[in-house]
Amino acid sequence: MGCAVVILHAHQFKEKTSALFVYGESITLQGKVTDLYQPSNQGGQFTFSVHQINGNNLPVGLKPNIQVFDSQFSGERLPPQLGEYWQLHVAMKPITGRLNDAGFDSEQYYVANGWSGKAVIDPDSADNKKIKPSNSWRLWLHQKVASQAYEYPSFSYILALGFGDRSEIKPLQWQQLRDSGLSHLMAISGLHIGLAMLIGWWIGLVGRMVCSRFSFINYDFYFLLPLLTSGLLALFYAYLAGFSIPTQRALIMGGAFLLMKATRLHWSGWQILLYSLCLILTLDPFSILQASFWLSFFAIVTIYLSLWFINRIQYSWKQKLQSILMVQIGVFIGLSVLGVLVFGGISLVSPFVNVLVIPWVSLITVPLLFISLFATALMGVFGTAEYSLITWQWVDWSLKPVLFVLESSLGAWMMLPKAGALLFLLLGLSVIFYHFRWIFPIAILWLVSLCLLVFPVTPNPKWQIEILDVGQGLAVLIHQNGKSVLYDTGINWPQGSIAQSVIIPSLMTKGIDRLDGLIISHSDADHAGGRVAIEQALSPTWKRSSERIKGDLPCVQGQTWAWESLQFEALWPPKLVDRAYNPHSCVIKISDTDFSFLLTGDIDAISEVLIARQYPNLSAQAMLVPHHGSRTSSLISFIETVKPELAIASVAKNNQWHLPSQDVVERYRKKGISWLETGDTGQITISIYDKEWSVDQKRSNQYQPWYRQIVRKGLE
Question: Where does the Metallo-beta-lactamase domain start and stop, copy by copy (predicted)?
């Protein structure tokens, strides 16, 4: 039965995705905007439900949701808003994300959210027009609240708590939320829907007391009133959050609880959890691809286990507080397993911050939030919305202690390698086993884990080279003896960088929080864009570049230096420059007694000719293809001088520059050289052992989920 459900959903998703590309890449869509517009420095994006493609209606059940990116709506031209129907001329794109050992996986993210593709609006097309205005009450209320609360310091959190709109949360605020362990507060999910149900229950109890004065009211109504108000308020809150997938899961679990109460059945907490889990996975099996799914259910399981572990009635306030703290510690240990695997670390203050902030937000902020929402809605209907300003000031005041805690928690995040997840898992199991006095199994558990750590199943390489999948750019990590050197840092953008999203997480999963060395080939943004982020986060001991930069060691022809057991030799450029462009790229050969690798940056043909002339005996088993495989590089004479067995190009799939050039690819292949490119393979790892070396391709050498072929349109 379960397999049939998964196959049905997978087939439906495939059909939706295929329908988007039947008419080619440049198409005209008609459909409805289904979520709030998310502005950015480059324009914005929104979720779009496609109803027509090139005038052809799509059947019910096969209308795909996509992410639409635009750069045209600014100034006086309003962007598409929630609930509006639009006709848009777009360039349809398959989802081709980066794939590394760590970092964001956009392909998984799209599938988990039910998005079948992405589209970029053609800003010059006359076909772009609004067909029907919005009648969304959620949008109307969101705009009212935004206009009233935008001046408050907690404005971004008000929108997040009220509507699930996190677009106003700034990078520093996200860091504070992460470091404090309170990120979950700003994603409307089980906790928030549960609070709405609880408040609704209290309202129902008050209503029951009022109704009890009237004898003509039926007893069943008395009984059902708290259930009705609880369910309705939860439904209202989920609507304000756009019925996001986490709120849908919470509604299902809450609905199971209310159903049990209404039918007077006696289900245990574990039964409610399992029934809800079955229903959620039946309706949306792709939920398992979301980290929030595992975090939500894992949190509930750890709460149940913690309460079971306490296993005694608490009478005094002191005992109750101890129990609350025990539950928080239990949740901390349990969620730390997933936290290390998903986020690469843990918040050191999370148990203590949550035990203070969650009750405060639950008892003070959320009730005030609901009062303010209802006040804004009612007064907005009567044209007196300004009178609800005072209630939003109350909400802002209630969040001031939370803001103080967030600011005080900055820096409390500890990055951990994935092995840290095993440590927390062992700790949690040990506590459970100890409860049953199972001392011997605890000893066996720790002994086996220690043996696996000391005596690994597979031999460790002498050193490794990782060519990270960073899209159109470059970042190469060299590892030996638990230490690392980085060559180039990838690109950056206003909200972040490759350094923050890929390089730093990749190092942290290995337990490396500091770089021995940083080498910048040249100053172009796709190679040096993440330099500042790397220097701030990883404090490299030494830095080298071909540009005159204070604090940098020179990378110029003829220099050699040793690092661990490896030899670094700089082959280019001949001298330092004030600004390093492509021809001034720092070219380095890294060698040991068994293997050598050539890092080429973005050198051009002239640079290649001069290098080959000065180093006629230059050779390397593997090399980085110059300038991402551009026609301006990779001369046959240079290839014949290096004589590599393997050539690797760092490129984005389907990039706008159409790199690598097929002519360049053929030059290498005609020489019998193996060709790999990160856009196809994902991260490429070269492991060097005694007398041999191996290559691991993230997409090819490991099991890949079926959905990757669908969203990439068979590009793998």
Answer: 472-653
Q: Which residues contact 183 (CB under 8 A, 6 or more apart)?
A: 174, 177
pLDDT at 214: 66
Distances, alpha carbon 201 to alpha carbons 197, 198, 221, 373, 715, in Å: 6, 5, 14, 18, 52
User: Could you tell me if 488 and 581 lie in one domain?
Assistant: yes
Summarize pLDDT for 572-597 with one digit per residue, the tens: 999 999 999 999 999 999 999 989 99
State how far the Cα of 626 lies from the Cα of 636, in Å rounded to an integer.
12
For range 5-12, the mean pLDDT: 84
Q: Which of 115, 134, 153 corresponds to the end of one domain? A: 134
Last residue of a domain, one of 407, 437, 457: 457
Neighbouring C-beta atoms of residue 323, cutoff 10 Å: 15
Mean pLDDT of 232-253: 94
Number of domains making up the chain:
3
Write the CATH number for 111: 2.40.50
Domain contains 152: no
Mutual angle of helices 366-381 and 137-149, in 10-degree steps: 110
pLDDT in tens, 161-216: 999 999 999 989 999 999 999 998 998 988 899 999 999 999 998 888 887 676 65
- Segments forming the whole domain that contains residue 338: 301-348+417-457
My answer on whether 482 and 504 are in the same domain is yes
Q: Are residues 449 and 310 in the same domain?
A: yes
Q: Are residues 549 and 430 in the same domain?
A: no
* 41 contacts 495 by C-beta, under 8 angstroms: yes
| Mean pLDDT, all residues of the chain | 88
- Tokens representing 495 are 């909200």
Q: Which two tokens stand for residue 97?
A: 């994300």
pLDDT at residue 238 tops 90: yes
Coil vs helix vs strand at 22: coil
Neighbours of 200 (CB within 10 A): 25
Do 98 and 114 belong together in one domain? yes
Residue 606 lies in a domain: yes
Nearest C-alpha neighbor of 399 from the set 368, 445, 442, 355: 368
Q: What is the pTM assigned to this prediction?
A: 0.87
Cα 684 from Cα 465, distance rounded (Å): 8
Q: What is the DSSP letter of 460?
A: P
SS3 label, residue 226: helix
Query: Looking at the DSSP assignment, which residues form a beta bridge with residue 32?
Result: 49, 85
Q: Rounded distance, CA 280 to CA 66, Å?
A: 22
One domain, residues 56 and 116: yes
Q: Where in 301-365 does DSSP place strands (E)? A: 345-347
Q: Is residue 505 part of a domain?
A: yes
Listing DSSP states for 413-434 in one string gives EEE--THHHHHHHHHHHHHHHH
Going by C-alpha positions, the residue among 364, 343, 461 that lies closest to residue 161 is 364
Residue 403 and residue 282: Cα distance in Å, rounded? Answer: 39
Residue 238, domain member (yes or no): no
Burial class (CB in 10 A: 0-12, 13-18, 19+), 715: middle
CB atoms within 10 A of CB 714: 8
User: Is the CB of residue 634 less than 8 Å from the CB of residue 601?
Assistant: no
Q: What is the CATH number of the domain that holds 590?
A: 3.60.15.10
